[in-house]
Design goal:
297 residues; Rossmann fold; 6-stranded mixed β-sheet; 4-stranded antiparallel β-sheet; 36% helix; binds adenosine-5'-triphosphate
C-alpha cells in the first residue's frame, strides 16, 4: 500500500497523431488538495477522463489506490464532479441521492448529507427548480456519498456566488480532512491559491510545475514588491532607496527574496520619514504567468 491515493506516472496519450498528454507525472496523497491549472486545451480534462478510465492512455500508468482506472475497485474509490453537472429535473434532491446511494451500495443518511451541503430546505423540491449553485451543491453531496479515496473536481466553483464558493471549499476541506485525495481543475487562481496544498500547472499536455506555493515562488525567483508610504517627502525616500514613485506619497521597489531583509533595514533606517510599508510577495497569478509561459514548445 501507499499513501499516494492517486498515482499518475509518465502518462502519454495522443488523439489521432497529436500528443495531448506527454510524460505526465502527478501524485496526490491521502488527504491532500492539489490544484490542476493550465490554459484552455492544456490537457486537464483529458487527464481527469484518463483517471476515470473514460479514455485510454497510450503510455505510462495511472493507479487509484493501486487499482487500474475503470476497474470496479477504482470506480468505487473515485468520485467526480463535472463542471456542468446535470441531474434528472423531475427528481427531488432526496430521490436523486437515494438513487446514487442504491447504485453505489451505500446507506448514508441522505437528509444529513443534504443538510451538510446546505440543501436541507430543498430536500423534497424537484431538481428542475434548483439554481446552478444548488445543483453544484447536490453534485458535491454525491461526491461525499461514497467516502471516496480520490475526488476529481472539474471547475467546482464556476458560476457560484462568493458565499457558495466559500461553502464549497469548506466541504472540500472536510473531504480532505477525512482522508480523500482531492484534485481540483480550475481557472480560479486566487481561490485555489488559498485553499490547496499543492499546485500543478499543465501546458500543452505536459506538467511544467508541481510544488507548494512557496516552492513555486522559490524556484521562479520572482521579486517581492515593497511599497513605502512617505510621511512628508516621497522624493527623499526615492533618492535613498531607489525604486519608482507611484503617486505623490509612495515609492515602490522590487527585490529578490534574498535581498528583502536588507531592503527593509534600509527602509527602517529612514525612521520617521516612513509612514507605512506594504510587502507583496509574488502571488499565484504571477507564478502561473511565469510557469505557463516559461517552457515554449
Ligand atoms: N474529444 C476530443 N477529440 C479530439 N481532440 C480533443 C477532444 N477532447 C479534447 N481534445 C484536444 O485535447 C487537448 C486537451 O484538451 P482538454 O479538454 O483536456 O484541455 P483542458 O485543459 O481541459 O482545457 P479547458 O480549460 O478549456 O477545459 C486539446 O488540444 C483539445 O483540442
Amino acid at each position: 500500500m501507499t499513501d499516494k491515493a492517486l498515482e499518475i506516472s509518465q502518462v502519454f496519450k495522443k488523439r489521432g497523431a497529436t500528443p495531448v498528454l506527454q510524460d505526465v507525472t502527478l501524485n496526490v496523497a491521502t488527504g491532500e488538495r492539489v490544484a490542476l491549472l493550465g490554459h484552455n486545451g492544456a490537457g486537464k480534462s483529458t487527464l481527469i477522463k484518463s483517471v476515470l478510465g473514460l479514455t485510454p492512455i497510450h503510455g505510462g500508468s495511472i493507479r487509484v489506490s493501486d487499482a487500474k482506472p475503470g476497474s470496479g475497485k477504482a470506480r468505487r474509490l473515485t468520485s467526480f464532479l463535472p463542471e456542468a453537472i446535470s441531474f434528472h429535473p423531475a427528481l427531488t434532491g432526496r430521490e436523486q441521492l437515494t438513487l446514487f446511494a442504491q447504485l453505489s451500495g451505500e446507506k448514508p443518511d441522505i437528509a444529513a448529507l443534504l443538510e451538510r451541503v446546505g440543501l436541507a430546505d430543498a430536500l423534497d423540491r424537484r431538481i428542475g427548480t434548483y439554481s446552478k449553485g444548488m445543483r453544484q451543491r447536490l453534485g458535491l453531496a454525491q461526491v461525499l456519498l461514497g467516502k471516496p479515496a480520490v475526488a476529481l473536481l472539474d471547475e467546482p466553483t464556476s458560476g457560484l456566488d462568493p458565499i457558495s464558493r466559500q461553502d464549497l471549499y469548506e466541504i472540500i476541506d472536510e473531504l480532505a480532512g477525512q482522508g480523500t485525495a482531492v484534485l481540483i481543475a480550475s481557472h480560479a487562481l486566487t481561490e485555489v491559491e488559498a485553499r490547496t496544498d499543492r499546485i500543478a500547472i499543465m501546458r500543452k499536455g505536459r506538467v511544467v510545475a508541481d510544488d507548494t506555493l512557496a516552492g513555486l515562488s522559490r524556484r521562479a525567483g520572482l521579486q517581492t514588491k515593497i511599497r513605502i508610504r512617505a510621511s512628508h517627502n516621497a522624493d527623499l525616500i526615492a533618492r535613498h532607496i531607489g525604486g519608482q514613485r507611484i503617486n505623490g506619497a509612495s515609492v515602490e521597489i522590487a527585490c529578490d527574496v534574498g535581498d528583502k531583509m536588507a531592503a527593509l533595514r534600509q527602509i527602517t533606517s529612514l525612521g520617521g520619514e516612513v509612514e507605512d510599508i506594504e510587502i507583496t510577495p509574488p502571488g499565484l497569478e504571477d507564478l502561473y504567468r511565469h510557469y505557463a509561459q516559461e517552457i515554449r514548445q
